[in-house]
Amino acid sequence: MKKKETVFLTQAAMIAAIYVVLTFIANAFGLANYAIQVRFSEALTILPYFTPAAIPGLFIGCLLSNLLTGCALPDIVFGTLATLLGALGTYALHRWKWCAPITPILSNAIIVPLVLIYGYGMTIEGVSTAYCYGYYFLTVGAGEIISCGVLGMILLLSLEKYRTRLFPAL
């Protein structure tokens, strides 16, 4: 195996492992589920700004987290897809530092409300599905702004100084 492939796999595996650990920490504090979700692990969705290895790392980390925390099947599939789309978008926008958290925020704010409504049956009695979607769009979006926009950008700015040491060119 070539050095670049080894570095890629190692980075992806480490990112996946850190994602799982951070999800368990957020779960321990009751922050990772329900309408407002503040998953510390979602801060890692800015990592494709540094390396493409973060894309499979985030995908696998989110998939494992959702499986290990007992999420419903729609959450396992579509929640993981939302993280994958966010990571792909971050990589696509990696030339613009301040755009790093935009796609993870949007992909989760758009997809996760559907998971909450149809996967978990989280509706409000006597209220239309469209209203529930709008409500969850705002609450999930708020959690993602905290996770990706605030914590993610703090992480990005902190790691930028060590970019070449932590994320050698692949």
Describe the structure.
- With 170 residues, the protein is mainly α.
- The protein has one domain (3-166): Arp2/3 complex 21 kDa subunit ARPC3 (Orthogonal Bundle).
- Helices cover 68% and strands 0% of the residues.
- It has helices at 3-28, 54-68, 73-92, 102-119, 129-160, 163-166.
- α4 packs antiparallel against α5.
- The protein is globular and about 60 Å long.
- It starts with a helix and ends with a helix.
- The relative contact order is 0.15.
- The model has no long low-confidence stretch (mean pLDDT 92).
Short description:
This protein is an all-alpha fold and 170 residues long. The chain is 68% helix and 0% strand.
Number of strands: 0
- Count of discrete domains: 1
Overall geometry comes to globular
- Based on secondary structure, the structural category is mainly alpha
Uncertain residue ranges:
none
Write the layout of secondary structure elements.
Layout: H1 3-28, H2 54-68, H3 73-92, H4 102-119, H5 129-160, H6 163-166
Helix pairs in contact: 1-2, 2-3, 3-4, 4-5
Keywords for this entry:
Arp2/3 complex 21 kDa subunit ARPC3, single chain, mainly alpha, globular, 170 residues, 68% helix
